[in-house]
């Protein structure tokens, strides 16, 4: 009798243990099934200046609006190449080695480095602040993003209205930035329609800018910036030299106008970043493939002005621009 009782108790204990184990396994499986996906994104910036920072902030905002939030289900590796191409290559290679889920590359040189580093992997590259993806060869493969193509014709119209007597526009650019070469050609094509001659000066590095600016300023009535990372990184040097000669400098986006440029017909880089972040969210969630997504642009431009800079240079606001003009220092 005692042996039967012991046998029954043993069987009962084993059964309870098995049920507990199964229940625990079921709970674990259910937990795994409902656990929110975690993402790792490398954000690679070619350098640090306000428009690129705005792109980065907008990108994170766009992801957050789609439910991908840094510190919750998103880990971010943020790095800057400080406008050095070799460093950009190293950053891209390190992110590929980390096997991140995606590289967000900000500015053309960084996008090219990221795409080249990730090309033989399944890591998508999503770029932003790339003026001409076709020229930069960023339109085929596991890559997509947003372009910040400048509204060159609107810029020329604005400069003509503000400087009715001007005949020459100077453009500084870095010879290794594909985006600048493309936009420069557009300027040269359209400028004669508005009575302008483009005087260009190419530089290899930021160290070349002071001398190049000195020489260029002696030949022109004004300067107009491109979205050239090397040049914009030295904007204050250019402004100091131009202001001493009473020569206006027109920016390519609002942050340059805040820093002292007279005006700009440009896009909103926060909005551009948000648009990029929403595209990236689709890819991370598996709703789309980068290779199937054409790059996108923002069509509308806005006129930003720096009234203090205009006053210092004796420039009056033309009536035809007054209704559209936004004070950059209030943005």
Describe the fold and architecture.
The protein is an alpha/beta fold and 331 residues long. The protein has two domains: 39-148 and 269-297, Response regulator (Rossmann fold), CATH 3.40.50; 152-266 and 301-330, Rossmann fold (3-Layer(aba) Sandwich), CATH 3.40.50.2300. 46% of the residues lie in helices and 18% in strands. It is built from 13 helices and 13 strands. The longest helix has 33 residues, at 2-34. The termini are far apart.
The percentage of residues in β strands lies in 15-25%
Element string (H = helix, E = strand):
HEHEHEHEEHEHEHEHHEHEHEEHHE
So how many helices? Answer: 13
Trace the largest sheet across and list its strands. 2-1-3-4-5-11
Structural class by secondary-structure content: alpha/beta
E-strand count: 13
Largest sheet: 6 strands, parallel
Return residue spans where pLDDT drops below 50 for at least 5 consecutive residues: 1-9, 26-33
The tally of domains stands at 2
CATH class of the largest domain: Alpha Beta
Rg, rounded, reads 27 Å
Please state the second-level CATH architecture of the largest domain. 3-Layer(aba) Sandwich
Helix content: 40-55%
Instruction: Give the overall form.
Output: globular
Question: Would you identify the CATH H-level superfamily of the largest domain?
Answer: Response regulator
| The CATH topology of the largest domain | Rossmann fold
